[in-house]
Amino acid sequence: MSQVHVIAHPMIQHKLSIMRDKDTGSKDFRILLNEISLLMGYEVTRDIPLEDYQIETPICPMTAKRVQGKKLAIVPILRAGLGMVDGLLSLIPIAKVGHIGLYRDETTHKPVVYYCKLPADIEHRLVIVTDPMLATGGSCCDAVSMLKERGCDNIRLMCLVAAPEGIDAIQREHPDVDIYVAAIDKELNENAYIVPGLGDAGDRIFGTK
Ligand code: PRP
Ligand code: URA
Q: N or C: which end of the chain has fewer CB within 10 A?
């Protein structure tokens, strides 16, 4: 069973509350999402393996540590997942970035794929999938399935706000994928929006409503 990590650091909770407020505009919403993503990235990468290598400091040779192997890929789910990429890249500048385009059909609430472009060697990387909202879980489940079809077997999911239904869906369909969230909210409403949530993340990031 995948683990759910709720990153309840006070600074993350403080910033998330400002994002939830309906009077927070797009500019501040983007800045806060960026800041939270960097802070969450610290936890998402807490246990990645290191290897030894030799360097020389200005004083003497030493055995130093670096991140092992083919390293990481960040894969945002378009559109809203894009808002979490820059924060993660400022923590992990060597990461490659792939993109998966999905939107939820307004009546069925089921995801529809419209784009997929991934790094050529993605199957050798730890993949961090980003999407601020884990609602029914359909979008994240499909994105993870697409990555597994490309051979990825080391995938983590980083979301901002989750509904219990979304967490259940990932645990049922992808029990090997750990989930990192800043908050687990109460429920979904009749339009499959997270309650209390923060509204439509894509619209709030890009100012499209
Ligand atoms: C939102 C959000 C997730 C999805 C979550 O995207 O960013 O991708 O809905 O819902 P789910 O867990 O029920 O699948 P949306 O479909 O609104 O597309 P957008 O980011 O392009 O606005
Ligand atoms: N997508 C969003 O952007 N917000 C929700 O609450 C649910 C899906």
A: N
Catalytic residue among 21, 108, 168, 208: 108
Task: Respond yes or no: is residue 203 known to be catalytic.
Answer: yes
Does the predicted TM-score (pTM) go above 0.90? yes
Catalytic residue among 104, 125, 156, 204: 104
CB atoms inside a 10 Å sphere around CB 78? 18
Judge whether 200 counts as a catalytic residue: yes
Please report how many Cα atoms fall inside a 13 Å half-sphere around the Cα of residue 10, on the Cβ side: 0
Spatial separation of the C-alpha atoms in residues 19 and 28, rounded to whole Å: 8
Using a 6 Å cutoff on CB, does residue 197 contact ligand 2? yes
- Predicted pLDDT of residue 149: 97
Identify which of 78, 94, 90, 173 has the alpha carbon closest to the alpha carbon of residue 130.
78
Identity of the amino acid at 139 = S
* Count of Cβ atoms closer than 10 Å to residue 60 Cβ: 6
Q: Supply the mean pLDDT for the chain.
A: 96
Give per-residue pLDDT as tens, 43-77.
999 999 999 999 999 999 999 999 887 789 999 99
136-161 per-position pLDDT tens digit: 999 999 999 999 999 999 999 999 99
